[in-house]
Design a protein that fits this description.
Blueprint (H helix, E strand, L loop, with lengths): L16 H13 L2 H8 L3 H15 L4 E4 L2 E4 L1 H26 L6 E6 L1 H8 L3 H7 L4 E6 L13 E5 L9 E13 L2 H8 L7 E5 L5 H8 L9 E5 L2 H9 L4 E6 L3 H5 L10 E11 L7 H17 L1
Length: about 300
C-alpha cells in the first residue's frame, strides 16, 4: 500500500520573512549598508539575516569582495522569486485592508493637539450616533503610511506633501491669531504685544514669525518668551495665564466659545487646511463614510 502525503501537510522550510526582506533590500542595493539604512537596521543585522538564509539553503547568495557584495546566480534566482512573493503578499494585505468594511473597528490617526483639544471631547457624540463602530484613536502627526501603520484614516494639518495615491478630503481651513485669557490681556498687554510673554511650540516653531509677517509686524519684539514641546502645552499655558500664544481653529474653537481664551486681534487664514487622508474614496467604506460625514459636520458647527 502506497502512502500519499499531500504537500499541504509538508512543513515549509522557509527562512523567516524578516530575513527575506533584508535579503531583498541588500540584493537590490548590492550593499548591506544601504539595505540597513532603508530598513532602519544595523549592518550586522542585515549580514546575519543573509547568513541565516544561506545556512538554511546551503548556498552562497552573495560574493563578498573589497567591501562590496555581488549576487551569485542562486542569489539572482532567489531575488526574483522573493520580490514576486513579497509584492503578492503586500498586494493581498492592501486589498484586505482597503475592503474590510465589515470590521467593527475604525483606526483613526489624528494630530495630538487636534485630538486632545477638539476630537476626544466629541467622540462620545459620534459613539451615540454610531454605537456599532469602535474608534481606535492613535495620536501622530505629519506624513503617514496608512497601510504599514494599519490605519484606516489620518486627520492632518496639510503642511506636508502627500502621496498621489491618497484621497484627500478637506475638513476645514485653518485660522490663527494670538490667544490668551481676558484677564491676561487686560493686566499685561492692553494692545501692546511688546509687554507680553510670548508662548512658543517646538512643533510649530514659526507660528509667531508667520503671524508677524502676515500682519507687517516683523519689528515687534516680546518682553519675554517661553517654549514648550507640543502645541497643546502652549495652548494650555495660555489658558493658565502664562502668556499669549498663536492659537488656531479648530483647536481653540471651544476655548473661544466658552471664553476660556480670547482672540483680541482676530483670527485669520493661515493658508493651510485640515484634511482627512484615506486610501480610497471615503464613500466606498460605510465606516469611513459615517465617520468623515460626522467629522466634517461637527467641525463646521464648531467654527
Amino acid at each position: 500500500m502506497v502512502n500519499i502525503v499531500s504537500n499541504n501537510h509538508i512543513k515549509r522550510r522557509l527562512p523567516p520573512l524578516g530575513t527575506l526582506t533584508a535579503f531583498e533590500a541588500a540584493a537590490h542595493h548590492q550593499s548591506f549598508s544601504r539595505a540597513a539604512q532603508e530598513l532602519h537596521l544595523t549592518h550586522g543585522a542585515i549580514s546575519r539575516a543573509v547568513a541565516q538564509i544561506e545556512e538554511r539553503i546551503g548556498v552562497d547568495l552573495f560574493v563578498r569582495r573589497n567591501r562590496r557584495v555581488y549576487l551569485t546566480a542562486a542569489g539572482q534566482r532567489l531575488l526574483k522569486t522573493t520580490t514576486e512573493a513579497l509584492d503578492a503578499l503586500s498586494y493581498t494585505v492592501e486589498e484586505i485592508h482597503r475592503h474590510d468594511s465589515t470590521s467593527p473597528f475604525l483606526t483613526v490617526s489624528c494630530e495630538p493637539s487636534l485630538a486632545m483639544r477638539w476630537l476626544m471631547p466629541r467622540l462620545g457624540e459620534f459613539r451615540a450616533q454610531c454605537p456599532e463602530l469602535n474608534i481606535d484613536l492613535r495620536m501622530a502627526g505629519g506624513p503617514i503610511d496608512l497601510l504599514s501603520e494599519n490605519c484606516d484614516i489620518a486627520i492632518r494639518r496639510m503642511d506636508f506633501g502627500v502621496h498621489e495615491d491618497y484621497q484627500i478630503t478637506t475638513i476645514c481651513s485653518e485660522l490663527a491669531g494670538p490667544v490668551c485669557t481676558k484677564d491676561y490681556w487686560e493686566k499685561h498687554i492692553n494692545q501692546d504685544l511688546n509687554e507680553a510673554n510670548w508662548l512658543h511650540s517646538r512643533t510649530r516653531p514659526n507660528a509667531w514669525d508667520d503671524w508677524k509677517t502676515s500682519h507687517g509686524l516683523e519689528k515687534v519684539i516680546p518682553k519675554s518668551e517661553q517654549h514648550f514641546d507640543h502645541f497643546f502645552y502652549t495652548l494650555q499655558a495660555a489658558q493658565d495665564q502664562l502668556g499669549i500664544a498663536i492659537g488656531s481653529t479648530p483647536l481653540v474653537s471651544d476655548d473661544l466659545t466658552m471664553q476660556r481664551l480670547i482672540a483680541p486681534l482676530g483670527m485669520h487664514p493661515t493658508g493651510y487646511n485640515y484634511a482627512l487622508l484615506t486610501l480610497d474614496d471615503p464613500n466606498l467604506d460605510p465606516r469611513i463614510a459615517a465617520f468623515s460625514n460626522w467629522l466634517i459636520g461637527a467641525i463646521a458647527s464648531s467654527l
